[in-house]
Structure formats: structure tokens, C-alpha cells
Sequence to fold (490 residues):
Amino acid sequence: MTTPVSIKGGRDGLRLVLDETASWEDVLDDLQHRLSHGTEFFQGAQITIDTGARALGDTEFSDLLHLMNEHGLQPSALATATPEGRSAGRTAGVATRPPSRVASPAPANDVEAALLVQRTLRSGQVLRHHGHLTVLGDVNPGAELMASGSIVVWGRLRGTAHAGALGDAAAVVCALELAPTLLRIADTLARPPESRPVGPEMARLTPKGIEVEPWESGKR
Amino acid sequence: MARVITITSGKGGVGKTTTTANLGTALAMHGQRVVVVDADIGLRNLDVVMGLENRIVYDLVDVVEGRCRLRQALIKDKRFPELFLLPAAQTRDKDAVSPDDMIALCNDLRREFDFVIVDSPAGIEGGFRNAIAGADEVLIVTTPEVSAVRDADRIVGLVEAFEKGHPRLILNRIRPHMVSRGDMMTTEDVVEILAIDLIGVVPDDEAIVTTTNRGEVAVMDRASKAGRAFSSIARRLLGEDVPMQVFTNDEGFFARLWESMGLRPKRAQR
Fold:
């Protein structure tokens, strides 16, 4: 009854669930088969890879990414329960999070370690992380950042950023140049004014809405 | 060792085909054996720009599908015996060719030429993926407009995702007088956003329209500013250290003279 690969639609988009007990060859074969039937549907789809309790290695994961790439699938995150899997995700620059099908005893605000991403995020690229997110590089217009914790951009933030995506109102967004096309903290949304002062700034949620202050003030 | 270079942009109409024709010709003028490949299957243009439209018998899809030998589909340029064109099919579409076909084709061409220049279609779909499949290097063409730069940024991300190394940038159709007035993005503005190496800046040149319509290329016209810029890019591709041209206004000398006498406001500082 269980197949090596199943694709499920959920609250947070598509999930590619790879059975943790099947052999890796079977998983890739089955995935190849599925993707080659219905290519159109999956073109450009953002998808979470769920490998469950499999101890996923770097080469296995890069084979998988290669196969997905060939069919135009964009991995948005890797859901894995193992340290090997998390390491493979980090090596490939894909955000990792615990798989949701494993009943999580941890409270919702117990976030994973912060993720450091060291590259330019370009138009069309999406970075999601359960925890704090740090980008060492520019976030260009058309790129999206999403984190359940805070977002720090050591560079220009010109794309969209959503901090506290699971409702954490204490999350902040900092950038050396804070000029996002759209800024969200928890469920509050703001669009910055056209002309912005230069220099590092921090955005946080106050009862009046999202407020942006120059970093110098050092408040918080 | 032959080099396969793909010219791409994301946005259409920024000058990919013109760039391909000019770089191909300029490299041939430097004695290189060059083939320009039109990978825009279904919307072929490169043959028209090079004035070789009426010589097409076989095309890229015929080669891939085995209806002719590679040699039969290659069209020799009118002016340079070492320059060849592999035209696209006009009656088919992108799906007629796969990335693997393109890799095999590029590898066949490597044996015969020093440079294989592939003209990519606009967009990020199959045609673009085919065009970069066999590439060693990628050159991204953009114009100093926000929409073109945004698309170029997307393309840079995809090129990096396909592990084609760091693409280099050609900034096309810059208008020096608009830049100096502060009405157009500067070279620095574009490079700052894209964060990739610049290989050349090409000024907007009306002569391109007339030469293109006649099936001639600008690099052969010594008077053409755009042609000279493309020649410089070709020399940079060959490893020469050619300084980047700084484009000033046509009336530069007088403008500076007036400025120095205080008769004109200083140009906007950007």
C-alpha cells in the first residue's frame, strides 16, 4: 500500500514524502517515474521534501536535487528528523525543518538553530526556515525570505521578508539597507515608504504596527 | 580547447541576437574559427541579422533528428570563411530538442571550432534550459531598465543553479546623455544589483537598426560605437585586457567647456 514516493498537498504547499524504509534507488526510480508523467503540473512548483527518519547523505540529497531540477521542481525546504539530513540540507543550501508527520512534542515557539545563508538571493529564489534566518549577502527584488523567528540581512534587503511567520510578534527584521518591497512580522504587513534613510535599520512590531528605527539607537 | 558560450537575458528584446552576431563576427575577425548557433527554435532570427536567411537548407532540428549531417547544416558566412551559422528550425518548437541533444551537439561543434556561441531564446523555460545545457560560460545581456535587470537577476540565479559558473554581464543600449542627466540607471547601479562581473558596456546606437535590417553587423563598421564596444568584448573574451570605455555625451567637450565657465549647471551626481 505504501509507495516509495508520495506527493501531498497541505496547508503549507506541496510535500514530497519519501518513504524512510524504502531503498534510495527505489525512491529515485519512483520519483523519476512520477515526474515524467505530469511534468507540466510540477514545473516551477515549490515543494517541501520530507525524508522522515532517513539518514540522508550529501550525495543522495544532491542526486535528488538534480532530479528535481531536471523537472523544474524547486525545493523550498527539507523536512528531516536526522542530523545527517540536516547536514545534507545545509550543504546544499536548502532550509531544513522537522517533518510534520512525526508528532512533535516540542512547543510551537521552540525554534531550530539559526540558519546562515551566505549568498545573494535573486529574483524568484525563496528561503524559508523554521527558526532565525541570517543572510550574508543581498536579497534582491523578487526574492522572498520567511522565518518563524527573526531575519537578519547583512546586505541590502530589497525583496520581501516575513519574520515571525508562525505568529511570533517579538520577531524583528534587520538589514544594512532595509528597503524591502514588502515587510511582514507575524500577521502585520507593511510597505516601506519610497525614500528611505541610508544605514542599518531594525523593524519590529509595536501596538501601532511595524516600526523601523535606525540601528544606532540600540533600543530593544 | 573550444569554448561554448551562451548569450541569454531572460527578457526579450534586449539584444541577445545582435550580441551573438556581433561577438561571433568580431571573434572571426580575430582569426578564430567560430560557429554561432540559433537556439531559439520556432522564432529564428540570427540568420536574418547575419544576412544568411536565403541560404538555409537544413537546420538544428534536422541535425538533432538525424536528417542531415552537422556539416550540411552549417552555413558559411558571406564575409568570413571561418564563421559559420547553425540556424534554428522555424517550423518546430522548443520541445523538438532536449538538453541532452544540445550537449551532444555542442560537443560535436567543439571539435571543429574555437568558439561556439549559442543565442538563447527569451524566457526561463525549456528553450533557455536547452540553450545553456552545453555551455561552458554564460554571458547575460541586459539593458539599463528595471524590468530587464530584474529578469537578468532571475537568470543569474538559474544559471548558478544549473552549475554553469559565474555568468558575466553585457550592459547593452546605455545612453550616456541620459545617464549623465540622471535619467537612466548607471553601469554601477546595474552591477550593484546583479553582483556579477561586467564584460562590456555597449552604447545605444541607431546604426544598429540600419545595419541589422541590411543583414550586416556593426563590428564591421569602424564608425559604429556599438560595433567598437562589441569588438572590445570579443577581445576580452580572448583574454586581452581592454579598458572599459567611458561613454560621455557627444557634446562632451563643449559641455565641459561651458561648465568650466559656469554657464551650465553641473551634471547630476550619481
